[in-house]
Amino acid sequence: MLIVMDKDATPAQIDAVVAKIEALGYVAQPMPGGERTAVGILRNPGPVDPALFLDMPGVIQAIPVSRPYKLVSREMKREDTIITLPGLELGRERFVVMAGPCAVESETQALTIARAVKAAGARIFRGGAFKPRTSPYSYQGLGEEGLKILRKVREETGLLIITEAVDPDSLELVAKYTDIIQIGARNMQNFTLLRHAGQANKPVLLKRGMSATLEEWLMAAEYILSEGNPRVILCERGIRAIGEHARNLLDLATIPVVHKESHLPIIVDPSHAAGRRDLVPPLARAAVAAGCDGLIIEVHHEPDKALSDGAQSLYPDQFAALMEELQKLRPGGWH
Ligand code: PEP
Ligand code: MN
Questions:
Q1: Does the global pTM surpass 0.90?
Q2: Does the pLDDT value for residue 34 go beyond 90?
């Protein structure tokens, strides 16, 4: 349930609502909005009687929240969430492109690619230092050394940094070094990791699990918000499907449906959906046309030598050409 306060409600009236919710044994989550404050009721095992609140001073409405995810739902918060990062914003009218290699391999590799993607208009550099690989024999990433390289990229280029955390230890390190913590498809339902991400003081990019339903994905985001971190960006990256023509099936329907169901921004990763570089531009264009809030794209200057995901990495000039096309498709609101 959501208790909506009058726009002139006093802090004392809001506190009284919070106190009543807590006295009932539930958790109160005040949500200040542009116009008015609302107070969410969480952890209530069954329906709450609206009459308990409707006669309290400053209360104008009590709205039942029907969805199983509460904090991420549009029912709880009508305005789009805008993710504020150093020097830029993501969400609503703010479109952001993140680009870089699948994995950080060396300082030269990372800096070469970072300079190229920056020149083409990307604002955030991606690159894994901790790689969750399907095979234990595949390249696992440089670990903390990779994070140090990413920090150097940030200092030298001014690009913000996103990188993946795979467990609570790496999450603590990633939160220290980077601007956005990535949680990968394979960890979307790693609830311990999600709770840790919810306690971090950095925004979290939550990829959709490779066979997760929309509800499971939003419930995973709910874990992060319920721990107190409201800065979550959802990322559609394709789901398992039949056929060998692409690595995954990019589920574009999630873009408008997430916008309906949730106030959180959603970006798209066409690279992991495609699995091959020729499909990345058309999928990126389709995602932009469907209304996503940003993209994350793999780029490598020597994809044939890449230690992971070379086949789906764009050459820097292909990325630059794609960025020009996308700017025509979506003329306003770029960061
Ligand atoms: C990645 O971004 O390199 C990655 C491993 O992606 P996903 O978790 O979507 O497979
Ligand atoms: Mn990859």
A1: yes
A2: no
